[in-house]
Design a protein that fits this description.
It is a single chain. This protein has 15 helices and 26 strands. The strands form seven sheets. Strands 1, 2, 11, 12, 13, 14, 25 and 26 form an eight-stranded mixed beta sheet that branches. The two termini are 22 Å apart.
Length: 574
């Protein structure tokens, strides 16, 4: 296209970027460009739920990152999947719908000094795009239900919410119950209750303590990613919307204004053949994720001055917090051999078993091919002194040595547990000034005494659950880490040996108050000191949410779209 000037340029066609593209292009007077470094989501394994096994670690859909060796992991580095495909991580993730806890958002409001981040003010933005299979209620939205944000009769004509109402916006993000169950997981849920963890029928009302099967982002047995939900057919039919895939941003264009201030006016984009310059008259919005957005800012000269100078990048604007504050959930995978029950290990252990699994999915869209990586969840306290549920379980009817390795030949289950609120902090830093080179990702897991104590205590909680009467029929035998390890020191070290990421990196472009030197964006997600530039993805979280991070990222994008449109209503185009 010859005219490469747009009102909005969105960098990243993933979870946040897809929703932003939908909302901002709803205004037909605004031209919107969505840039996605990966390919379109036309790979069949993106859409079959079990296809995450073939998308993670596949350069067609994954950035193929590796973490730096970590002392807390006893020198190990980890595979670090990030979606490089339309739909981003929503195209390769575990499809689990969890918002976190109300206290997470109340804490964000306190950190930023902005009550708009409080739980009661974020809940309507979760509900706006939600299509919950149970229908609308006080905590959930549904397709066709009248969102409380769009319901008022006095919405100013032409305003953002008035425009969305006219477009019949809302209810795009489908949430369903899972389409299979397992006897051994039912027993684990009963054992958890015997160990003092209450049953729940909804993890998403603000207090997620309890045990239940997870709800998932699927529709009729297929993965429901953000490209399906927000881009097609809606955006594709709009003449004011453009999508460029296989378009990687090399750096942002930062210009010095007449008054000496800095403004982002566009981006340099590598098409795979040539470098193309695109311009934005209103805003450039970074939605490239906690790794990608921090990397792009640093390559553009926005970040810690010492790092940029060391990599021969011209410093455009010093922001020391860019790439700092990396947080992630580290899951500790306990494996138990079981007897007298069906697990995926045995079902998929023969050609006949695999054929039956494939046939069931083809005929009914049920069975193991329809399942999320983890089916059963639980939230509880690592020890009774904790003020709230601070650990999360992902329980699976399968086991393997490491993700991507073959299933074990014996029947087994895996009870993975993670610290919901880690105190360890890591970083993302460019290694070179070349946009093609992956950054150094150092999550710094288990770097604090508090995190090591939670790791040891959580393994004891797992053992307590597995020792309950409800599990006795299956004669569970601890295979990993092994009953010989008992002390805090032994269990923390073992956690470092067997733990792996659960793929929830956040915080590298965190929001904060204007007087916070490490805040990268303000409470409305505008990059501090650079006009015309926002970050809208999980990187802006100042602290990690107490659960899976995909749906909180959608809520962030929903709020950001509203703010971006409000700013446009008040301010003429630059």
């Amino acid at each position: 296209m010859n005219d490469n000037t747009f009102d909005y340029i969105i960098v990243g066609g993933g979870t946040a970027g897809s929703l932003l593209a939908n909302r901002l292009s709803a205004d037909a007077s605004k031209r919107v460009l969505l840039l996605e470094a990966g390919k379109k989501d036309d790979y069949h394994w993106v859409h079959i739920p079990v296809g995450y096994l073939y998308c993670i670690g596949n350069p067609r859909t994954d950035w193929m990152y590796q973490t730096e060796p970590a002392e807390g992991l006893n020198g190990r580095s980890l595979r670090y999947p990030r979606g490089k495909v339309l739909g981003g991580c929503s195209s390769i993730n575990g499809m689990i719908y969890v918002r976190g806890q109300s206290r997470d958002y109340d804490q964000w409001a306190q950190i930023t000094g902005n009550d708009e981040w409080r739980w009661d003010r974020t809940l309507p933005y979760f509900k706006l795009h939600e299509d919950h299979y149970k229908g609308e209620n006080a905590f959930h939205g549904a397709k066709g239900a009248k969102s409380e944000l769009l319901a008022p009769t006095d919405l100013p004509k032409g305003s953002y919410l008035h425009t969305l109402r006219g477009r019949n916006t809302g209810g795009e993000w489908r949430i369903e119950k899972q389409r299979l169950r397992w006897d051994v997981l039912d027993a684990f849920a009963q054992a958890a209750q015997q160990a003092g963890i209450p049953a729940t029928d909804d993890f998403n009302r603000g207090d997620n303590e309890g045990v239940s099967y997870f709800e998932v982002n699927q529709k009729n047995g297929w993965r429901w990613n953000t490209a399906k939900a927000f881009l097609r057919p809606t955006c594709y039919a709009r003449p004011n919307f453009e999508l460029w895939n296989k378009a990687q941003v090399a750096k942002l264009i930062i210009e010095t204004q007449a008054d000496g201030s800095q403004r982002c006016t566009g981006a340099q984009v590598w098409s795979g053949v040539e470098m193309v310059e695109v311009k934005a008259t209103r805003e450039v919005i970074l939605s490239a994720g906690s790794i990608g957005s921090a990397q792009i800012l640093q390559l553009s000269g926005i970040g810690p001055a010492a790092l940029l100078k060391d990599k021969a990048v011209e410093v455009k604007h010093e922001l020391p917090g860019v790439g700092a504050n990396l947080q992630d959930h580290l899951q500790i995978r306990s494996v138990y051999k079981v007897k007298g029950t069906k697990t995926l290990n045995t079902m998929a252990g023969s050609l006949w078993g695999k054929a039956m699994i494939g046939l069931e999915y083809a005929l009914k869209r049920t069975g193991p091919m329809s399942m999320a990586p983890s089916q059963l969840g639980a939230f509880t306290k690592s020890d009774p002194s904790q003020p709230h549920a601070n650990i999360q379980y992902h329980v699976q009817p399968l086991s393997l040595d490491a993700f991507g390795e073959p299933l074990h030949s014996f029947p087994a289950i895996t009870a993975s547990v993670c610290n919901l609120n880690p105190t360890s902090r890591g970083s993302v830093q460019i290694k070179t000034k070349r946009f093609e080179d992956a950054p150094a990702i150092a999550p710094n897991y288990l770097a604090t005494d508090a995190d090591r104590k939670v790791a040891a205590d959580s393994l004891r909680v797992t053992r307590r659950i597995m020792a309950q009467d409800a599990m006795k029929a299956f004669q569970p035998e601890e295979f990993k880490p092994g009953v010989q390890y008992q002390s805090d020191e032994e269990l923390a070290k073992l956690a470092g040996d067997i733990a792996s990421t659960i793929f929830h990196p956040v915080g590298t472009t965190r929001m904060g108050r204007d007087d916070d030197p490490m805040a990268v964006v303000n409470a409305r997600l505008q990059v501090r000191g650079v006009a015309g530039l926002r970050v809208v993805d999980a990187g802006v979280m100042p602290t990690i949410t107490s659960g899976n991070t995909n749906s909180p990222t959608l809520m962030i994008a929903e709020k950001a779209a509203h703010w971006i449109a409000q700013d446009a209503e008040r301010t003429p185009s630059a």
